[in-house]
Design goal:
The protein is α/β, with parallel strands linked by helices. It is built from twelve helices and 27 strands. About 25% of the residues lie in helices and about 25% in strands.
Amino acid sequence: MESNEKKNFIINAIDADIESGKYKPEEIVTRFPPEPNGYLHIGHVKAALLSYGIAKRYGGKFNLRFDDTNPVKEDTEYIESIQEDLKWLGLDWGDSYKSASSYFPKMIQYAKELISKGLAYVDDQSFEEIRKGRGTLTQPGTESPYRDRSIEENQQLFDQMIAGDFEEGSKVLRAKVDMASPNMNMRDPIIYRVLDSEHHSTDEDWHVYPMYDFAHPVEDAIEGITHSLCTLEFEDHRPIYDWFLANLDEFKEKPPVQIEFAKLGLTDTIMGKRYLKQLVEEGVVDGWDDPRLATVSGLRRRGYTPEALQAFCEEIGVAKANSTVDRQMLEHFIRNDLKLKTSRLNVVMDPLKVTITNWPEGETEWLETETNVDVPEMGMHKVPFGRTLYVERDDFMEVPVRKYFRLFPGNEVRLRGAYFIRCEEVVKDADGNVVELLCTYDPETKAGTGFTGRKVKGTIHWVEAENAVKVPVNLYNPLISDGEFSPDDFIEKIHSDSLVRTEGLAEPRILETQPGEKVQFVRNGYFNADPKYSKPGAPVFDRIVELKSSWRPPKN
């Protein structure tokens, strides 16, 4: 039971159950129950890691259960992608792979048990009539004219529903609870509806499918879930969750307990699965794994790491009130994870030509440079140096502002891993634009030689022109700004600069980058060789995150 996890109200509740003798630690069972109607997004990451972490904390059991009760919206593609995402996140459910559809025969029997107890009835009203009959938050509902059918008639009608004797929408099975309840979810919720649709994973033909409010507690109980962890929108559903289990004989003794927690919200991020699906289906993005999306597959393709997501979720913790987290906080954990894992390579994104006038024409020197100065174990690699170089355009300022220590006329800087150079002359085109810097180098200042002479305040990165390679680069910005999202017109508000395709000039070692490998472009950020479009020797880079942000972890 030892763990480094922070304590929270969920752990406190489970600890109390263990201390009271209700459960032994190893008897704790949790589950993650995704619906296979889309790809997982970062909000699901928090939920999955929470349930999995709780089970591991106590040495209990974790189930992956697909809530596949709506065949109209489900697909095996989603089932496969969800498993792939969860494995990438580090979840291991062993042989505890479950699916709601495997319980369909049992669910039918539990529904029949409710009918036999006079606690469920077949309703002939349309969905619209049922909706109107539920009343409002201030007015009680109206009982269905079919609510007092006999047990025998309800049994017969339900059997006919199961057999496929009725058209879709013509009949439903409802729980008989309380049409005057202040909780709308208790006003005779629908248990089953007629739906003539083939299920993607069952061998039998089904003509009725259970509703979530019935399926959820029954599935949990069948699996012996001890603590069913849900997001806050299910808090109002807890009374009906408990009602179903209290009225089914098999589950009365030790029913699962539903505990709600706040879902994850991120600034500048589209989260809802139906909105993500709309972006994909309307071709606004490059599939479910588009690096601009908050889907797990999109984050993985962009270069996020499971370790960073785990650390982020642990830091934000578990709360009882919904809130929105600054996306820069997530990016902090990405940087923190990548800084000691990645090679650091010189890549110039906005090149300005530099000519070293006192360097011999046609001569190239291959310099040894550290692959990651903070991780000596990564070793050294060679970079070419010659007469013509490129530096970043914003590393030069003709009239420098205060505390500007990079290149300007008469100033000297260090070229990272190379020599000191001094800007001697500025070359401009006919329009007055700076097109070239004429500089001199000091051969005594070679990096790695122990030079201890004069100091310079500025160090800049560079690439040698003759051996530089062009690499395609994708720069990403949020699809939409925080506060701009509206379900009705969010597509119209997608930022045109959410994807900027450009290219960089890089040192030749970059061609060794394998698809899916992450590197740091010095001073430009962390980048991932896009696993979808990169090929060995021809990487295409996605910017994972910029090198710096304004977010800082809180002080203890």
